[in-house]
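Hey all, sorry for the wall of text incoming. These are the three entities for the joint prediction.
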Amino acid sequence: MDLIKINNLKTYFYQNKGLLSKLFGEGLKTVHAVDDVSLTIQKGRTFGLVGESGCGKSTLGNTIFRLVKATSGEILFQDKDVLKMNSTELMGFRQNAQLIFQDQYGCMNPRMTVGQIIAEPLLMKAHGDLDNDKLFDEVERLLLAVNLDPDSAVKFPNEFSGGQARRIGVARAIALNPTFIMADEPTSGLDISTAATVLNLMQDLQDEMDITYLWVSHNLNQVKYMSDDMAVMYLGKIVEMGQTKDIFNEMAHPYTKALISAVPQISAEKQQETIFLKGEIPSPINPPSGCRFRTRCPQVMKKCKTHEPPLADLGGGHMCACHLHRIN
Amino acid sequence: MKENEPLLDEPLLEVSKLTLDYNLGKRKMRALNRVSFQINKGEILGVAGESGCGKSTLGLAIIKLLPKIASIRRGEILFEGQDLLKLSEDQMNKKIRGQKISMIFQNPQDALNPVFTIEKQMVDILKTQRLYKNKRIRSARFFRDQAIDRLKATGIADPAQRLSNYPFEFSGGMKQRVMIGMALSSGTSLLLADEATTALDVTIEAQINKLIADLAKEYKTSVLYVSHNLGVLAELADRIMIMYAGRVFEMGTTKDVFGSPSHPYSAALLESMPSRQDRGKRLLSIPGFVPPLDNLPPGCSFHPRCKFVEAICKKEVPPMEEVTPGHFSACFLDIKRGRKRLQWI
Amino acid sequence: MNTTATDVMQKKRRLTPGWTQNFTLIFKSIAKKKGGLIGSIFIAIMLLCAIAAPWLAPFDPNEQNIVQRFAGPGLPHLLGTDYLGRDTLSRIIYGCRIAVLVAFGAVSISSIFGVFLGVVAGYNEGKKFDYFIIWLFDIVRSFPQIILALAIVAVLGPSLVNVVIALAFTAFPFYGRIARAQTLFVKETDYVKAAQAMGQKPIKIIIKHITPNILAPVIVCLGMDMATMVIWESGLSFLGLGVRPPTASWGIMLRNGYKYIQVSPWTIVWPSLAIAFSMIAFSLFSDGLRVALDPKERNR
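and here's what came out:
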């Protein structure tokens, strides 16, 4: 069942918007952060979104939550367009969909106790009408659910280690039994064994509460481990999408190949040699014409400069946007 | 995984029994505890461990850029036969830092001054180097050419043009290249890299690590590569050193340490990495937490978290023993039972 | 120190310390540092003087004794007397009332008003309301402060309340600017985004998440400003637009004293010292308060 269906979503940012820059500046600059993205997230599964910094994966997430204004397109959540929701509907959506932030300390108000932080969504749902004992019970239950000491409720966020702080973030996210959670780099900045604890916890929660995850990460090992479906983004566009095992078994897009080959592996039997890409990611203000990856692509052709490859099905829902696969 | 090549067994740096404390008021944090190791010429030594294990302190101790609260209790750092701990600050600046030993950090953007051009900053560094103290060759033209050569060596396209740019015009990966260019001269024999690619994207990280490996090979430079990313170390390093709570737990060739880890902690780290597991399987999460450095458990500092703990582990500190030639481990398990495969799950 | 509050919270199953515990917690934290302790003692003395002036003052502040005029420090007039033979100590003690009223009054009105406008403007950055508020701040700030205060008092008529209003009006854009600048920064933090994503109402986000986190610089300015307000009140009184004589105020004492500076320097030394000490006290106290309100710094 489709939980989220995104159709032709575009999120642009504008620079030099003011009157003075219009008159004297270089004119309006458009940042194509998310450019014509369509994808479907199925209920109860984990959808991995990978790409390098600046590819628009975080902007896409923020757009789904309406933290960033979408330019056009639609985001259907349980068949309702999030972008067209009125304030009451939006409130309902936001209780059903939660976020886990990349910066585990930054996402908590440093002047609130952990208990207050976790209680905030609960109080909001109950419109403040929740007696102290019940609230405390609920907060204790949530802290236990993420394997933290219930006594933590009266401490401040800065008294916790990175991994614990991350788990507090998870506790807040699951407070309202959401159906959908977006996790933005949920293990960044954590040590290996701490990250493992968080990954295990999030899998357990998925099994218990039937949560759908949108897993935004640049760590391909982790996405391979966590997700059922995945999409690879480059400069605001999806270049490859499909089931994770299909993509890792038969990488179709040259960028995906390079990305996966660049991930260092410990095991001796590494499948392939690292493909070193030329140069750096171009600016999203003036993306290259045609295929956006052509400036760095090892297999670039003449056609790539003039024609933009559409996202085409290679069979079994494995989609790829590359001219190489349209010849066959 | 990097296959180990025969290395010239010529030690460049020998650290022995280095013990270092951070004094925070009354609390004494022992950040390094009898750390001994050596780096051979042209070798890349990878140092791994979780945050707070002392791996970053180690790099800073070698180049003697420690904060004021740190005090070295004992030990020596022999670099080309000379004890660095006995050198004065002035001697360190004149002879060692930036000349023979250079360091690159995690955030290149913090290391470059935003208001000067790359040329200005590179030339300033070059001018301080002993190598160029010869008066006859000291001209602006000469230093500019040197700077261009360095940038070229680090793979920056169109170096002459880029020299007049300001740091903000460079991306993160490019800045790290500039830093490496500054750090590596033909006189540099040891490069300390502290999480040098952690802030970079995967494809850029691969480029930079390749650059470090190539330069190390070309100039016969040794590298102490500190990282929490075991995968990066596996591909880059010749030998690996695993640290925990200020102590060295295991040391050996990359193949030995990652292929057949002999210390339970190393084995646990490898089992907590998602790359080794298939979807759905549980990852190993080591119970407990890294102990605070001012309140370490007695005996082996890993014993409260260790699955294979025995009575002796709680009382005595296990000595470093050679398991197989060149592969050292500090665990009683090895000493008593010989080598065996450790399985946490 | 913090554990006591934590223990109480655990026992009572509360998520925050109650008002009383909060108060003791903050006060203990201020008193822990030397500066904070000294500042609080000075402020306590000032408050005590202001409240209990009739009992503390050895003489009636307005009682004239021409024979004793320009007496130096000694007995029975501990700090001497002024040109009319009034007891300086008693006048300083009574002057505390004016100083405390003006300092607390003007600063609290201007900071509450300024912070409120600044936060709301910052939260609605780039909207019409924001532009209007900035415009308002800029207009008020474009006048020299003392001239504006003079003009307001001149229009409203000289009285203590009008001095407070005038001073508050000239100072509020200052707080507003700080609050707005801080809000622009705090607004972009992840915890505000988290609250937005949760569906929290803007007003609650402003009260619960933004305001507590922008207060640190405001509190520092508050302390410094309180001291400035005392000086300004003196200035206005000095110009004859503040408190009406014979009411004792430090400013009036200065004004009257400076004419006789060569006859009896004591008459201006004491009020100047009183102003200086109140300044130091307010800044020390506000810095202590800033630390005490920050959970991160409190336990250091």
